[in-house]
Amino acid sequence: MYKRQVHEDVLTNLALIRELRVVSRTTVQSYRGTTKPMKQIAEELGVTYILEGSVRRVGNRVRVTGQLIHAATDEHVWAQTYDRDLTDIFAIQTELSQQIAGALKAALSPEEKAFIARKPTTNPAAYDEYLKGRATRNRSPTGSKAALASAEESFQRAVDFDPDFAAAWGELAVVHSLRLFWGHDTSPGRRARGERAIARAVQLAPEAPDVIRLAGTYAYYANRDYAKATEHYEKVLRLQPNDPTAYQSLGLIQRRQGRWAESLVNLRKAVELDPANVSHVRNLLASARYCRRWDEARTMQQRLVALLPEQLREAWALAQLDWEATGSTQAVDQLLARMPPEARDSELGRFLRLNWAVVRDDFEEFKRLDKLQPAYPDEVNPVATAINAAFYYHAHGDKAAARARIEDFVAPTRAQVQAEPDNFRAVGTLGTLEFFLGNTAESLRLLQKSADMMPESRDALDGPGGRYFLAVGYALTGNKERALVEITHQLKVPSGSIPSSLRTDPAFFSLHGDPRFEALLNDPKNNAPLF
Predict the structure, then answer these.
(1) In terms of CB atoms within 10 Å, which of 212, 396, 505, 514 comes out highest?
(2) What integer pLDDT is reported at residue 368 of this predicted model?
(3) C-alpha distances in angstroms, 283 versus 88, 233, 423?
């Protein structure tokens, strides 16, 4: 834990110096255990110097060593060893950062000196919890309810240990904002806790770069206040011109504003500055997919496979990209054929095979796997999984199985909508569930309401999702004309639907054979890059 702390915080301090470009710990970690020469590593990272070091803890004492190497000549420019009490860990980090800057002859402004010398907390227990919370949030799947709940507990303990820990208050606020954003809990109480946490962070350290960044993230996810969030991230970039997270955040905001071309530029900049950061790569990959830039999407997915070689999900996603781009199932079929039994029969393996059975329209295999595995990996939304299964049962005429598949989720979703009437995700989910209960008029009313609550003019990324479910509702209730209007729109906007998924989506089986639907799917322009 402390090795990661020192490494990460020294790099964070150095990144505060305008004259330096610093590669983040996430990218550097990909070289752990490498036998590559220093010169090659430096060329791959686009840097001149490499910082090596170690951290060892014995009881309440810690030894930190560091050496700065000029990669082209293998010359040791600076080296130092520190033996201190654990309580001096922040002083060590400050001294390390200042001495490295001096060795590089980087001029430190008074503002930069003050930022580097700051101590985030004097309470080791609070800092431990802060590190645990960050690790949980950063390493978990996007929007994971369990991960966010765990991170919230860690950050809450951190501020309980040290009520003056500004960054921990900011991180706690961000977790609250993400719970709001993903629809886990949009209650007034959740929002009030988030507002109190971010206000406390800003009160304690209004000019600290990490607090400015966290305040921007809170404005983004809690309130979709893109103007305020942009203001904060641009301020961070004035303090830290090479901060990849700020570029990524600007890119994420711009795509929600419908500024897709600008968004791609900033997301690429984040990956350029931090090429092995999984989060940055994922976001560029997602935008490339949304914009149907298939070659760029493949390149990013190949990078994820290289960064996460043991993860089945990444290999699957690479093969599935071929299906999305071309409609061919060959790559996924070949991956399934060579998949070892332990992977095929894992929880994730069965879930992926279940989804592929729908694509291949193998109803018997789908039923077998759906009965075999009622539960799915933690990051999978069980309500969405049940709805997708219900669509397929319904398409094959088994309305009783479709209804049975979703029944357990009806009462909790109705209760959530009643408690959180502004939760557009919950309203849309309930609209879909009502269809399978036979309440078609209510289903269409709720689906329309959800789409109206989050139009594309407010969010160009989430907006098309609401209109997709409207298309589903129209198709399932026999209104082909309205369904085709919505599908035509889906094919013209980023993050809308694509021909390969529409062709195999059981919600649209009733449109198969309609010449207008077939023409839309067979038009190459409807799967060509949008930007």
Answers:
(1) 212
(2) 94
(3) 38, 17, 24
CB 43 within 8 A of CB 32: no
Indicate the residue type of 13: N
Q: What is the C-alpha separation between 76 and 51, in angstroms, rounded?
A: 10
Q: What secondary structure letter does DSSP report for 345?
A: T
151-190 pLDDT per residue, tens: 999 999 999 999 999 999 999 999 999 999 998 999 999 9
Specify the higher pLDDT residue, 288 or 119: 288
- Residue 86 pLDDT grade (very low, low, confident, very high; cuts 50, 70, 90): low
Token pair, residue 314, equals 């990444």
pTM for the whole structure? 0.84
List CB contacts of 275: < 8 A, sequence separation 6 or more.
27, 45, 281, 303
d(CA 302, CA 36): 21
Q: Which of 358, 376, 380, 375 has the alpha carbon at shortest distance from 367?
A: 358
* Two tokens, residue 494: 């980023």
Which whole number is the average pLDDT over 27-36? 73
Q: Provide the 10 A C-beta neighbour count for residue 206.
A: 11
Q: Which residues, in sequence order, are CB contacts of 459 under 8 Å at separation 6+?
A: 224, 256
